[in-house]
Design a protein that fits this description.
Chain lengths: 637, 864
């Protein structure tokens, strides 16, 4: 069993597991931090941005993880754990010869589609006339300025995919529900478990009859909107692949939410605007819920909240219909005449308004001071670019970063100098080290595999030995491009016996509770399923003279020789010999048993634990007699 | 004593004698005893007051059949009677005493096993041991043996009472001179202390006690641990209570055993042992031999194996303010060790004797228990700062540095690391307990000499804490306190740069919008408290208020506080109102012109008073006006204040919350005082000039009349009249006192013609009815209509209003003195009277008597 690690990013994993003749890709996250090397793409022409020194011709700006490690066309299935971890899907399934199936839950597919659509929309509405690739040449790159010179693996940076590719990729997705068991070629069974991180997010269990591998990706134990994490099904795993822990181990989500609210209130009270660069699904639901409770108490009732995204409407609506994927609290609301999420009420009361873009209705209804939620969190594309340009000059305004994926200082770099206040409140509800060590204590996997980042404290806080995984036995670390031999050997395989064959068996008890029967059968292996069938009887040869050709003889089915069991008791055996006239016996004790020397017949009988030998030259009748005497004491099966 | 009680008491005793008769509740015997005690304390002889008691006591003593609670009560009662010498004689004569206090008697009856009886025996004995007669009885009856046996009784109550009694016996056994020397506060004891010759007779008792202590202190088995702890506690108490010669005797008797006990180094005994040693040590002269041995013992304890024990010993030594400088210095070093190890700031110079301890503590700090150890260290820093500077192992500035580093390590956001123990960081990061202890220590250290130079560092760390998202509200509160403390002691704030200030202001602003109300509350409170901090020198070299330097003054604070007036949490609203009062007080005192802002605030506060659903906010609003009125040098010239007072008074006194009403009356009192003190601003005790005396009555009258009119106009009189009929006793009492005050000022001067010229309105129908009722009860004539018609004639009262009453008339008619006497009694005075208690006992007994005898029994059944 092997694990190919295609991504070194611990929260955007992409691993391939080879297990029992199947090749399973676990997630395909897309690391988009490389966009920080590019200038923002403003929708409206920005004289300031266009004057910034930059490299004029550029490619699309997305990054694909290294894939030469493995031929992508050999992948049988892709298991997706949450919508953030599927953003590279078109790169895997399109133009690679991929013929397999993708498994994901319904919310994952729908929200993932929204995020992809949004990304494509953001990119395509600001088309670039030209693209360049030559600069990726090492020789040229070395001469480039600033951080670009030091960027690694630039050759993996790809153009953003198109809507057509997205549709094609998503058409390969097959929907699954929590705990639903999916057979893969009869060899293994995969099943998604609720992971509590986002709508439809899942961990996966991959098991054969005798082995179990658990894949834990972004999971959360906090009570937010999704269904709680299913921990018990992860028990008894041989290997647990652990990825997607929190990126902010020191930032408690509750504290951050509090910070978010107080900074927001502080800015609004002072007459400023608040900009929240965020993804259009996920934490935003919790933010809106938190604000729903907070705005009343903080006297912000009249402040408008705007959510601007090409998919804003769908995102808000979708969240309300996935009732079965929500936490218990919200599920029960489905039976009441109120929607599960309170943002519906915010929309009804006109406190929250959503728009597909800054054009159109928004520009006429826009009222300040206000709070704007919009993408993209990298500040390089999307409507956020416009608001950064609009509000950046006033110190009354605040930008609050809630997504932990990008370094906020790097994101802000092209907007400097900036008068606007910047607050970093990364909200990451995924498991922290304390929670994960508790989880592992509970689940007790034999081996844990995790990104190497989790096996040492973070670089900036090297004294925090509590911010790493400490396990016994130590976890197996992986990094980008590693290939791990997972440390367990398969020892058993399940074989089925057909009923009629089972019926013909005659078990005999060899010792109390243990019965043995001999089986003669034909082993049939098909679709990784092994079955014992009864040996077909030779068809009675029809007495036909018309037979021209001698049919191939059916295999001669000889009755198998009986198996013997038991031990020959020495005293009783000697007595029997005597009864048969053999009196001169010399008994010699050996390490394994006894040797009987029949002196008159010049014959030796070796009685040992696992065999009996009769050595007598040229006296077949005697040998047969002796044989029969020995057999009297043994049991035939 | 009430004659009615005396007449009932024999019947009550009779009821108590009937065994098994139920009592109304299990505290009634206690209450009865309390009542007897009060009688005895007033100086009257209990036997003279209630002669039936002796009979009762002797009957119970000879009859075992009473329940154990009655027996216990009787034992205590016997003690109470015998506490006076007369009573003692009577009891002795009827030979009750010997019987009652003979444990053998109770053992034979099989009642001694009951802890209830034992506690009665001990408490009775303790009560009786007030005079020499009793002591000689105690010695003759050889009661010391059973008393000693009870010292480690299985019942903790019994054991504790036995300890107290033993101490009392020993105090009585002392010679009179030593009792005086010991400063015994018990006058009875001093009065009754024994003559020299009799003292000799009690050496037997002292020997027995010494032997007993010596024997019991030593710990033979671990199973005896609780007993050993109890004995140590007893010993500590005895050493504190008895005087020098006897104490030395006791100490000499036990010191060998103590040394032996210390050598066993049993953790559970560390604290009680320390108590004993420190108690013994405190009164000894330096040169005496036991003192040297005790000091040696303390040294042994400071070198025990377990670091926690050593730290506890060191803390105890510091707390007791030891005179031995070496010992204190060493204790301080021990207590600072964890801080030294964790932070890596070398507070202590290299000292080979501490190396072993350092290793042990370092090991301890790698476990989770490090939290309690660090907290122990931090909580003793105040003791360390009190030490003489030459005893301190390092300058206090260095301790501040270490604490600052510790605070940084505890902060979740901080990335600072220490040169010290790395393993401990995982336990203390984000631990609010350690954070609070460290901030507490920092607070104390603000007074240390030479720490001003670290002010900037302190300020940075505190701002970091205020800014941190993970700070617990209690930590935030402590941080705010620390800011005020440090700013208060630093007269020069010029080191606070603009950047630091900006960061601080941002943090405060953010906390004012926090999602947790506790954090908002602390912030608002801080804004108020900062105004009270002493002035300082800022960078401009001018004297400035700290709130101006740190926060930019009122232009920052007031808008923030006004926001907080709208807070959903009532505590925050209340705090913001008091903070506003604190903030504005200086301007009120200076008599600065009113601003629009202040007018807005007053409008908002009146809204609070009218509409707020929570009492806290309304109370604070009334207090705001109280503060304003008392700070204002001449309230009558402040139109806004004088305009608001009538509204506040009328609204406040009609509030549902009694505290709001009471505060409103306090405001009324202020107005009242100011109204009558205004014309003659002289001191109440100032010598009056002849002219004052000769002031014509008419002049006085007219002055008073105008003041009274003002009071009526401001609504003070209505508020008082409304308050006096209030159903909340404290409110009615206060109003009654104020009305009496008013009557004392007004009525002697006013004649009947003048008083009818001042009327006031009675607001509210119920109040009017009540005042009317009182009026009618006092005087049958209809004062009001008469007065009104007369006033009408004179043109003073424009309309004939049935709700109008003449002030002076009302003051005279209302029987305020009677009302005051009723109101000063507690509301449960009838329920709690001895008569009611006795009646209850009788009623309960009657109710539980067999059916047929009492017709009420059936009634009870019916009801059921």
């Amino acid at each position: 069993m092997k694990l190919y690690c295609l991504s070194g990013h611990p929260t955007l994993p992409c691993n391939v597991l080879k297990f029992k003749s199947t090749t399973i890709m676990l997630d395909c996250g897309l690391d988009t931090t490389s966009v920080l090397n590019f200038l923002p793409l403003p929708l409206v022409h920005s004289p300031r941005l266009s004057k910034l020194p930059g490299w004029v011709s550029k490619d699309g700006s997305l990054n694909l993880e290294k894939r030469e490690l493995l031929d992508l066309s050999t992948i049988d299935v892709i298991l997706i754990s949450n919508y953030h971890c599927m953003m590279a899907l078109p790169y895997i399934t399109e133009h690679t010869g991929f013929t397999g199936t993708v498994y994901a839950t319904e919310p994952t597919l729908q929200i993932g589609r929204l995020l992809m659509e949004e990304l494509v929309n953001f990119m395509e509405r600001v088309p670039k006339a030209q693209s360049a690739t030559c600069w990726k040449n090492k020789e040229i790159q070395r001469m480039l300025p600033g951080p670009l010179k030091d960027a690694v693996d630039v050759w993996t940076w790809k153009r953003c995919y198109s809507m057509q590719e997205v549709n094609s990729a998503l058409s390969k997705v097959q929907l699954v529900g929590y705990s639903q068991k999916v057979e893969l070629f009869g060899a293994v069974q995969v099943s998604p478990l609720s992971s509590g991180y986002s709508l439809g997010s899942s961990n996966w269990v991959i098991q054969s009859h005798h082995e179990k591998v658990s894949y834990v990706s972004g999971s959360s134990l906090l009570t937010t909107h999704p269904q709680p994490m299913d921990q018990s099904s992860l028990k008894n795993s041989d290997v647990l692949i652990l990825t997607g822990l929190t990126q902010m181990p020191t930032a408690n989500p509750d504290g951050m939410l509090g910070e978010f609210c107080s900074n927001l209130a502080m800015t609004i009270r002072a007459g400023g605007n608040v900009l929240v660069p965020c993804y259009s699904s996920g934490v935003i639901y919790d933010l809106l819920e938190c604000l729903y409770q907070f705005i009343e108490s903080a006297n912000l009732g009249t402040t408008p909240f705007y959510f601007i995204s090409p998919v804003a409407n769908s995102s808000l609506e979708f969240s309300q219909i996935f009732a079965e994927w929500l936490c218990h609290n919200k599920q029960t609301k489905v039976y009441l005449p109120e929607p599960p999420f309170p943002h519906a009420e915010l929309i009804q009361t006109n406190k929250l308004k959503h728009y597909p873009s800054i054009h159109g209705d928004f520009s006429s209804e826009f009222r300040q001071p206000c709070v704007v939620f919009t993408g993209h969190p990298s500040l390089r594309f999307g409507d956020v670019v416009h608001f950064m340009e609009l509000w950046g000059k006033s110190s009354l305004n605040t930008v609050i970063f809630t997504e932990p994926d990008f370094s906020y200082l790097d994101a802000l770099a092209p907007y400097q100098p900036l008068a606007m206040k910047c607050v970093y409140c990364p909200i990451d509800t995924r498991l922290n080290f304390h929670q994960v060590s508790k989880l592992l204590k509970e689940v007790q996997p034999l081996h844990v595999v995790c990104p190497e980042q989790y096996t040492q404290p973070p670089l900036t806080q090297s004294h925090r030995s509590d911010l790493m995984l400490e396990l016994q036995p130590p976890p197996m670390p992986y990094r980008r491009c590693s290939v791990l031999n997972l440390p367990f050997r398969r020892r058993y395989e399940r074989v089925y016996i057909l009923p009629e064959l089972a019926n013909s068996l005659v078990p005999s008890e060899v010792k109390p509770g243990v019965s043995v029967a001999t089986v003669s059968a034909v082993l049939q292996s098909k679709d990784n399923k092994h079955t014992l069938q009864s040996v077909p009887k030779a068809p009675p040869v029809a007495p036909s003279k018309k037979r021209k050709r001698v049919m191939e003889e059916p295999p001669v089915t000889m009755a198998p020789k009986p198996l013997l069991s038991g031990a020959v008791p020495l005293e009783a055996f000697l007595a029997t010999l005597q009864k048969h006239g053999i009196t001169e016996v010399k008994v010699e004790e050996t390490a394994d048993g006894h040797i009987l020397h029949l002196q008159a017949e010049d014959t030796l009988i070796q009685l040992e634990e696992d065999g009996t030998h009769i050595v007598c030259d040229n006296n077949e009748p005697l040998r047969a007699t002796l044989r029969d005497l020995v057999l009297r004491f043994l049991q035939k099966l | 004593m009430d004659s009615q009680c005396v007449s009932i008491l024999p019947r009550v005793c009779g009821v108590l004698l009937v065994s098994g008769s139920s009592l109304p509740d299990d505290t009634s015997l206690e209450k009865l005893l309390d009542w007897f005690t009060t009688i005895a304390q007033t100086g009257t002889s209990l036997l003279e007051a209630c002669p039936c008691l002796v009979d009762f006591v002797s009957k119970v003593a000879f009859d075992y059949t009473s329940g154990s609670s009655i027996l216990s009560f009787t034992l205590k009662l016997t003690g109470l009677i015998g506490a006076s010498e007369d009573g003692f004689k009577v009891l002795k004569e009827c030979s009750v005493l010997k019987l009652v206090f003979n444990p053998q008697h109770w053992q034979e009856a099989g009642l001694w096993e009951d802890p209830c009886l034992r506690i009665g025996w001990i408490q009775g004995l303790k009560m009786i041991l007030k005079h020499s007669e009793a002591l000689s009885f105690f010695a003759q009856a050889d009661l010391i043996e059973p008393l000693l046996q009870l010292q480690t009784d299985s019942s903790l109550f019994v054991a504790s009472a036995a300890n107290q009694t033993l101490a009392q016996v020993l105090v009585l056994c002392q010679s009179p001179s030593s009792v005086g020397h010991n400063g015994s506060k018990n006058r009875d004891l001093e009065h009754n202390s024994l003559s020299m010759e009799s003292t000799q007779n009690y050496s037997g008792i002292i020997t027995k006690v010494s032997d007993y202590l010596n024997k019991s202190v030593v710990l033979k088995e671990i199973s005896q641990l609780p007993g050993s702890q109890q004995i140590l506690r007893l010993l500590a108490m005895l050493l504190v209570r008895v005087g020098p010669p006897l104490r030395d005797t006791l100490l000499l008797a036990v010191i060998n055993s103590l040394e032996e006990l210390v050598s066993t180094s049993c953790s559970q005994l560390t604290v009680p042992l320390l108590d004993v040693i420190l108690a013994a040590n405190s009164g000894l002269r330096d040169d005496c031999v036991p003192k040297q041995r005790l000091i040696r013992l303390l040294w042994v304890m400071l070198n025990m194996k377990k670091p926690v024990d050593v730290m506890q010993a060191a803390a105890a030594v510091l707390r007791s303010h030891q005179s031995d400088p070496a010992l204190s210095a060493h204790s301080a070093r021990v207590l600072l060790l964890p801080l030294d190890i964790v932070t890596g700031v070398s507070l202590l110079d290299e000292n080979s004797t501490e190396e072993e301890l350092r290793i042990l503590i370092t090991e301890q700090l790698k476990r989770k228990s490090c939290i309690s150890m660090i907290c122990l260290c931090l909580s003793n820093i105040p003791q360390i700062t009190l030490m003489a500077s030459d005893c301190l192992p390092c300058p206090q500035r260095l301790i501040v540095t270490a604490i600052l580093l510790l605070l940084r390590l505890c902060c979740v956001d901080s990335s600072s690391s220490s040169a010290g123990c790395v393993e401990v960081v995982r336990f203390i990061t984000g631990n609010s307990k350690v954070q609070k202890c460290a901030l507490e220590a920092l607070l104390v250290l603000s007074k240390s000499p030479g720490v001003k130079m670290v002010l900037v560092e302190v300020f940075k760390v505190l701002t970091e804490y205020l800014n941190s998202h993970s700070s617990d509200p209690s930590v935030l509160q402590k941080s705010y306190q620390a800011v005020i403390k440090w700013v208060g002691v630093c007269p020069d704030l010029s080191c606070i740069t603009d950047q630091l200030r900006e960061g601080f202001i941002q943090a405060v602003r953010k906390r004012a919008c926090d999602t947790r109300w506790e954090a908002r509350d602390s912030t608002v409170e801080f804004l108020g408290h900062l105004v009270g901090a002493p002035s300082c020198w800022a960078f401009t070299e001018q004297e400035m208020e700290p709130s101006d330097v740190l926060l930019g003054g009122r232009s920052f604070t007031v808008p923030l506080l006004k926001e907080a007036l709208q807070d959903p949490e009532s505590y925050v609203r209340a705090s913001s109102i008091s903070a506003l009062a604190q903030t504005l007080t200086p301007s009120w005192q200076d008599g600065t012109a009113l601003t629009q802002e202040q007018e807005d605030i007053v409008t908002q506060l009146q809204e609070v008073l009218f509409q707020d659903s929570e009492g806290f906010a309304r109370r604070a609003a009334v207090k705001y006006f109280i503060a304003w009125f008392s700070a204002c040098s001449s309230p009558s010239s402040c139109w806004l204040l004088m305009q608001s007072v009538p509204t506040v008074l009328s609204q406040g006194v009609a509030d549902l919350d009694w505290e709001v009403k009471l505060h409103t009356l306090e405001l009324a009192e202020l107005v009242l005082d100011r109204a009558f003190s205004d014309p003659s601003p002289s001191h109440p005790y100032a010598v009056m000039s002849d002219q004052d005396h000769r002031l014509p009555i008419a002049g006085q009258q007219s002055d008073l009349l105008s003041s009274l009119k003002n009071l009526v106009d401001w609504g003070v009189v209505s508020a008082l009249l409304c308050g006096v009929v209030d159903c909340d006793r404290p409110v009615a009492l206060k109003a009654c006192q104020l009305l009496l005050k008013l009557r004392g000022i007004v009525c002697p001067v006013m004649d009947n013609t003048a008083d009818t010229r001042v009327f006031c309105q009675l607001a509210g129908a119920s109040m009017m009815q009540q005042v009317r009722k009182i009026q009618e009860m006092g005087k049958d004539t209809c004062v009001v209509s008469e007065a009104c018609s007369e006033a009408d004639k004179e043109g003073i009262c424009a309309s004939v209003d049935p709700e109008c009453v003449s002030v002076c008339e009302v003051l005279r008619v209302l029987d305020l003195d009677e009302k005051l006497s009723i109101l000063t009694q507690s509301s449960d005075h009838i329920y709690n009277s001895p008569l009611s208690l006795l009646q209850d006992i009788l009623t309960a007994a009657a109710a539980s008597s067999p059916p047929g005898q009492d017709p009420r029994q059936e009634l009870v059944m019916d009801c059921y």
